[in-house]
Design brief:
Elements (H helix, E strand, L loop, with lengths): L2 H12 L10 H9 L3 H13 L3 E8 L6 E7 L6 H9 L4 E7 L5 E7 L2 H15 L4 E3 L3 E4 L28 H11 L8 H9 L3 H14 L2 E8 L8 E7 L6 H9 L4 E6 L11 E7 L2 H14 L7 E12 L6
Antiparallel strand pairs: 1-7, 2-4, 2-5, 3-4, 3-11, 6-9, 8-10, 8-11, 9-10
Helix pairs in contact: 1-3, 2-3, 6-7, 7-8
Amino acid sequence: MTMEDALDFRLLNEFQRNFPLCPAPFADLAARLGVAENAVLRTLEQLRRDGKISRVGAVFAPKRIGASTLAAMAVPPEKLGVVAEAVNRFPEVNHNYEREHRFNLWFVVTAGSEGRLQAALGAIEQAAGYPILKLPLVQEYHIDLGFSLDGKGEKLQPPVRPFTPPTPLGELERRLVIALQEGLPLFIRPFQVLASRVGCDESEVLERIGRWCEEGIIKRFGVVVRHHELGYTANAMLVQDIPDTLVVELGETLAREPGVTLCYQRPRVLPDWPYNLFCMIHGQARDEVEAKIVALRERLGLTGYDHDTLFSLTRFKQTGARYA
C-alpha cells in the first residue's frame, strides 16, 4: 500500500466519527496522521470528487429534528426509470434505490416537520402515479454509526435514550442545520466559514454541534462514506416478521452482529407488507452476503420467522438528508 493509499484508508476508516470539533480540525487530523494539513484537505477533496465520500459532516438522528420515513412503490419494471426520475425531483428525497421485490422502488423522504413530510409524500404520490407504502421508523437499534472497512475493531452500540419528540428549531439552529446539510467546507477554518453563513461566532457553532452530538441529535460527525464506490456493491435489506413480544430483544441482538450495518423496527402494513424488523448487510459480492444472511438467521434462531431479502439493483439517488 502506497503512502497515498494508506492516507486514503485511514481518513475513510478512522474518522467516520469522533471528528475533532475545534477551530482547525484538519490540522488536528494531520497531526494524528503525521502528514501536512494541506495533504488531508487535498485527499478529502479528491475522495469527494471520486464519489468515495459524500461529505464530511453531521449525520442527524431520525426523529430528533424534523420528520422522515422510508417509502416504497410497486412500479411496472418498464416504467421504473421514469418514475424514479419523477421521485428524484423532490428535494425531500435523499435516497432512492431499485430493489428486487414487487415493491421495487425504495426511497427515504425527510422534511422539517410531520406536516411538511405528509405534504411531500402526497405530492410524490401524485407525481409518480403509484401509491406509496409508508414505513416510518418505530425503533432504532443500530443506525449509521459508521462502517468499518477492514472489519476490525469492536462494533459501537448507541447509548439507549428514551424517545423525546423533536423540539422546534430556533432561527439560528435552523440556519446551522441548513449549512451542515451541505457538509463541512474543506477549508483551514471550516467552522468559521459555517459561522459566517449562519450569522454567529465560530465558538457558538462548535458549542451547538458538540451539544447536539452529546444529546444524540447528531448521530455522528465525520466522514460519510459511499459503500458502492468503495467496492461494497452487494447491498441487501433483510426484512423479517418477528412477533411483537420478541422484536426488541431480537432487534438489539441483530444490531450487535458485526455484519449488520443498520437495524431498526418499522410497522407492518397488512396485507401488503408483513415485515417489522429490517436490517442492512453490505458485502463485496452477492454470494458473500447471501451466506452471511443464512448463517445469521441460523445462529440467532430466526429460521422459523418469515423473511425476505431485497438486494439493491440501481441507485437512483444518494444525498444527505435535508431537514430545512
